[in-house]
Specification:
- It contains 10 helices and 7 strands.
- The protein is an alpha/beta fold.
- Strand 4, helix 6 and strand 5 form a beta-alpha-beta unit.
- The protein is globular, with a radius of gyration of 18 Å.
- It starts with a helix and ends with a helix.
Amino acid sequence: MGIEKGIFNRTRLLLGDSAMERIANARVIIFGVGGVGSWCAESLVRSGISHITIVDSDRVCITNINRQLMATTKTVGQVKVEALKERLLTINPAAEIDARQKIFCAETAESFDIGAYDYIIDAIDSLKDKMLLIEMACRTKAHFFSSMGAALKVDPTRVKVAEFWKVEGCPLARALRQRFKKQKRKPARKFQCVYSDELLENKGYNATCGSERCMCAKAMTGPGDAALLNRRTSERRAELAPAILSEEEEGEASHEWCSSKAQINGSLMHITAIFGMTIAGLVLKNITEER
């Protein structure tokens, strides 16, 4: 057991040996490690998850600092998954952290072998890619949890959990459901989402990151990803056309795409972190209740 015995002493005291063994053996993959996914990953690792894959194509931008776990003035420009991996290994050096600087999309989806995981977590915001992940995850035996939009919110008491088709007041969830219905597609099974029915308006304005230290995804990617990401950015702009989404839905769906976004929306750490930690809590609740 080594160092892990000390790290998880308080967790073991609460949950017991059997639950801790199941937690340590669970395999988790998180798609998107921004304001939601990064906090989810930390919560899981601090709770004893030892096998975790983190997926994100971006590098840390200076505008990530207000809400993303691994984003500091010292990590600006670093690959997000690598910066987060370094952080997670300082928590549990024995953890197996698989960091993949990669885009999840139709072209890359099969390379992740998501059926090999016990838990799949969706913290991405591209409608097209989110729909694909939902469909693929729901065809596996893995437990699946999805984050809806976390931008334009302040009130922590309005963060909730509901089954996808019962989420109310969330433009991103509504846009996803509309697309599923329009395309006559449907997830193979039900799944839980974390969301908030609060929707505020931006009081300031900023068309880009507004900083020379901007690390936009379209400009800073891994080898071989630049062309793909540029193409996906163009597709995303078309995807968010007003003819498809209302103005509020367009902004909500595009809140994490830096200067390639159709619109930049404000977001706060306490909300994005609550989203991420709530998902982590759902994972742990499921593991500890399983027999």
